[in-house]
Amino acid sequence: MAGEMRRGKPNILQKLLHQIVSIRPVNAFFSTRMHRMDFFLLKLTGGKYTFAELAGWPIIQITTTGAKSGQKRTMPLIASMDGKKIILIASSFGREHNPGWYYNLKAHPECEVEYKGKTLVYAAREVDGAEYEKYWQLAVSIYAGYERYKKFASHRHIPVMLLEPKE
Fold this sequence. Notes:
7 strands, 7-stranded antiparallel β-sheet, globular
């Protein structure tokens, strides 16, 4: 699955779209709606396409176990790749709190990732130090808006989660 995920840099049109989406009022609009729009299109296309892919972002569907509820939760997220490893940025669009999926992975690191109709099991861990910097820069190369989110969320550290396939 990982080898099939888009790894290239965004083109000029996608970079422009990234800049527009990371403007605070536009960001505020999409932060509460993009996952719903992507869920709709994923359902309509049998798990193959999302609106976010127009911007050149590789989108996965991650299923986590709720930290408190124990219930399964599925969320489409932007992903970056390092070989078979998946990098997730817990930016929550620069909002006040970390996203719920981050707490779910901290409590229950095993998760399922679906991409283009294929599902694999992964183990998640939070990275820090040099690993954090490496994966942060990789993610920023795909979506520069993460740097803007870091400014929006200057009151908190934005976690980076690494998903490694369970074999």
